[in-house]
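Entry type: protein chain
Record version: 2
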Amino acid sequence: MAGPTGGLSGPDIAGADRVNMGFIVLIVAVATIGGFMFGYDSGVINGTQDGLESAFNLSALGTGFNVGAILLGCAFGAFGAGRLSDLIGRKGVMLVAAGMFIISAIWAGAADTSAHFIIARFIGGLGVGAASVLAPAYISEVTPASIRGRLSSIQQIMIITGLTGAFVANYALAATAGGSTAEFWMGYPAWRWMFWLQVIPAAIYLLALLLIPESPRYLVVKGRDAQAEAVLTKLFGAGAARRKVEEIRASLNTEHKPRLSDLLDQTTRKVRPIVWAGLILAVFQQLVGINIVFYYGAVLWQSVGFSENDALQINILSGVLSIAACLAAISVIDKIGRKPLLLIGSAGMAATLGTMAWCFSQSTLVDGAPHLPGNVGVIALIAANLYVIFFNFSWGPVMWVMLGEMFPNQIRGSALAVAGFAQWIANFAISVSFPSMAVGLGLPVTYGFYAASALISFFLVQAWVKETRGRELEDMQG
């Protein structure tokens, strides 16, 4: 129902005068550009590997480190961002991340050695890691509980949109130039332009961030209650704003500022159960191998008989299906909850990854390269895309939603730092190990490991993860 200023009524904000949905939509739209950059920076590497290998004369392990360099940056970016956001604010860190995206894009495209490329991608990773944890946290701190899941899930859609955008740009550049290593504008090969194009959305992100306010919960932590109330008034009306400031203040430990030691139970001195739950979500989202599809998709499909052109088109198809699955998740996440979606995803991924492991076990060598016989290639392609759908209907958006909302106010920055660091270290380990695992152990064993991880995640979610649907952030315990 329309409120007095054209917003929507907000039953989960006690006594709210209104919910200013126009302002909330603007905030979410800007914050999730960080998700787009996260996706683009992660996906642009897919399709540039031939260029990297020829330019820098890389071995299989060297390719893994050039691909995975961004992920080490992501780990440190996520860890530093959580704590830094408690010092300079959520918006402040996102502005720093936007600058890093621009620097990384220019330097990676211009790199003349593998070392320079790795440094450039590490800097981009710092930005990706920061954006990955702060965008959903920021969104959760400025949106009503009743629609928080849907709005936070937009982050995953933007990540996949960024990935798909990178795939489309890579495909268009390679097709126009005649291949990723072929000469393009100004005499530079197409793969370098794949990185340079990222400057455009990065600059848009930097400028758009100037339009949104700082998180009101951060402002309260800093004792800037008047500013927090002003932001909350614009979001929910004056009466609700005053009450919300009081609730936020009451949820904080006034004896000290947020610190890493808050992650330990003050009585037992053991890691809090809610932190373990966050680590499980962060790590197993990567152990199921999703980024193998996004980082190595072109190489994977070429290795089993598809041309480079076909492989890049398959990547685009996977991106489109991912967006559709995220939209489906958005439609139900605030109705059936987070935990049921996680369980559905774990079961579906275990089945589809198991199918892919079987398909790759049927491959034969043709002219020294693996080839999937008969209809097995079609089955593998269907299973891979069903896997992508299950992931993006569940663990893709839900993990980011839950990390942004599941922790109490006092420990949110510190818990995000630790969970984000763990998530990106797991991503790095999976991504860097894939070329060696695929060659040394074979694709059947490699995908069998991802399938086993998905199955284990089902039982861990059952035991450790608690539902957060509809709960105010000030009510989070653990």
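Comment: The mean pLDDT is 80.
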